[in-house]
Amino acid sequence: MRVRMVSMALLFAVAGCASPITTTGAPSPTVTGAPTGRATPIGPNEPTAPIVPIVPAGPTGPPGRTAPAGAPAAGVPSATASGTAGARRAEARPDWPVGNFPVPRPARRINCERVRCVALTFDDGPGAYTNALLDMLARHQGRATFFVVGQMVPGDGERILRRMVAEGHELGNHSWSHPELPGLSEAGIREQLNRTQWIVKRATGVTMDLMRPPYGATDARVAAESRHLGLAQILWDVDTLDWRDRDSSLVARRAAEATPGSIVLMHDIHPSTVQAVPRLLHHFAAKGYRLVTLSELYGRRRLLSGRKYPVDSGF
Fold this sequence. Notes:
By secondary structure, the protein is of the alpha/beta class. It has 9 helices and 9 strands. The strands form 2 sheets. Strands 1, 2, 3, 6, 7 and 8 form a 6-stranded parallel β-sheet that branches. Helix 3 runs parallel beside helix 8, helix 5 runs parallel beside helix 6 and helix 7 runs parallel beside helix 8.
């Protein structure tokens, strides 16, 4: 009996000295808000004011577009992306939650046969100044079409493209590395367009149906490859020559020559071009013009794959 009591006393002593086992989870991540700074609009007396690029916060796009807590696991369709569309998106990038693709703004009902419409188009990005440009367009409720160079997309470019889609802009294919397509073989043309189609769909879930041949250089073989991929060729009728003349006042003046139905060519990789945009937006607003995407500009008129616009369209 005494031996049993001693044994029990020893057990209680050991239990009293033992430290309790505490299970702690990983520390909660610190959530910081996205930068609230915006690029300052450039007035008429500040043609060379610097533009501070704004990079959207988080891996899924701009503030307000990130996936909510409890987003579905990778490859699991969400409630907003189900059926065949959800399956296509999951197939495009199986390592992303489907819900992380941007949700485009609702289509606007604009009849450009009755309303003064101008399509601003920007080539060669996304780049360091594209976010500032998107801020300017958002303040004026304007939408534009961005012709993407594929090799500019990896990294921050993916977040910028997702922001474009979320804010209602349109994406077009501008090749992978900006060569003159007629100088390539059929296989080379196909690779330039295919790689860009692939990376944009991987980043955004969007399958582009527009392309702009670099330098506007095209031929029958480029048309055939574009037609095979379901891409209409988009040229322009107002050239700002912003790639040559890095003068924001001159760029704005040339772009202001646009008339209803015009397609304006600019490049968002040049800071002088982005500096020209605020006064250009004020100019079009004063004239009662709507700034629209190419799909909005053409409306019910079906753009045919491989065909050139506006050269063949009567604009």
